[in-house]
Amino acid sequence: MLPQAMSPPLYPPEMTIPMERELSNVGVTPLKTSEAVDTAIKQDDLVVIVVNSVCGCAAGNARPAIIEAINRLPLAAKWYTVFAGVDREAVDRARALFVGIYPSSPSIFFLKNGKVVFSISRNQIEGRTPASIAADLVRAMREHTIDISSMTK
């Protein structure tokens, strides 16, 4: 049996590429390897890693909330995404950073110096509106970013 990181994707690219594009169209960078994850988290800035998913709450709640939050504070953080069931190596590496947090997708993690400072898991996404999730994301960006006064629209 292959390790999960080496296993083929669970979902065909033609299914997941449009979901990934929803986020990349607003500046969220896809991470495909463990090395890419390691490079992303070495930044001094606030880093956000989204564990994207094909599920309904990702489509109806998480991705719209992320887009809204980025539109409200476009430069407050560096945004990245790994896709559960697709970018297995990158997802495994990212989840190794989320110490003590049960793996779920979709989920959103704010990191400073490689450590989680804020997170929203699937159970905090399901049943909520994108606007309420976006408000939490904006609040967290404001709390964990030094000077965002010049970044707001």
Task: Explain this structure.
This protein has 153 residues and is α/β, with parallel strands linked by helices. It contains six helices and five strands, in the order H-E-H-E-H-E-H-E-E-H-H. It has a five-stranded mixed beta sheet, sandwiched between helices. It starts with 12 loop residues before the first helix and ends in a 9-residue tail after the last helix.
Keywords:
153 residues, alpha/beta, 5-stranded mixed beta sheet
Arrangement of strands in the largest sheet: 1-3-2-4-5
Which ranges are low-confidence, i.e. pLDDT below 50, for 5 or more consecutive residues? Answer: 148-153
**General form:** globular
Radius of gyration: 15 Å
Please report the total strand number as a whole number.
Answer: 5
Strand content: 15-25%
The whole-number mean of residue pLDDT values reads 89
Q: Class by helix and strand content?
A: alpha/beta
Number of helices in the DSSP assignment: 6
**What order do the helices and strands follow?**
HEHEHEHEEHH
> Termini distance?
50 Å
Major sheet attributes: 5 strands, mixed
Helix coverage percent: 40-55%
